[in-house]
Amino acid sequence: MSFGKNVTATKIELIKIRRSLQVSTMVHKILDDKREVLLKKIDEMIEEANKTRGDIWSPLSEIYSAVYDSYMSLGTSTLESISDSTPGIMEVNVDVRRIVDVKIPTLQIKTKESGQDLSYGFSETNVYVDKASKLIKNMLPQICKAAEYENAIFSLAKELEKTQKLINALEFVIIPQYQHAISFIKGTLEEREREEFVRLKKVKVVLDKKKNIEYT
Length: 216
Hints:
This protein is mainly alpha-helical. It has helices at residues 11-74, 76-85, 127-215; strands at residues 90-99, 102-111. It contains three helices and two strands.
């Protein structure tokens, strides 16, 4: 809609703009509440992410060491051949949950049914491969959880940015324009009423003079 001097200064328009201002103010309050919830959730996710990352750094270092020893003892070709021929015993299921109406993927580790802890043969491997395999299997759920938190923080931060832009638009552009339009219409209507009052007063003076002339 148009604002300022281009606004149609009528009572109907004044009612419409007042209603729009009321709706905008209500939406601003809803978005402000949403922003507070998003900030709280992001803080919670950051805390959980930091805790999860702290729990996996030491085991990851051990995993890297075991994988390095495997490569050094067996060679790259042998280790990659074992990897290619080994069937997977774990899979990641992806689901979705909502936080403040934001879709957040959740990761769930599922172990396939197997009669043994390790899914490869022992003839071409050694203790370093066994150690790396077991460590990775034990750590994968925590790694996925850390990734889940990181993604949630990113998604919530994007939603927060979008929400803040809407709040700014309402707070600094839309609501002030409605307020200005209301002020302009009220001022214009009041000026018209004063002009009408003066006009009627002049008309009354003229009519009174006519009456006086008729009676004399």
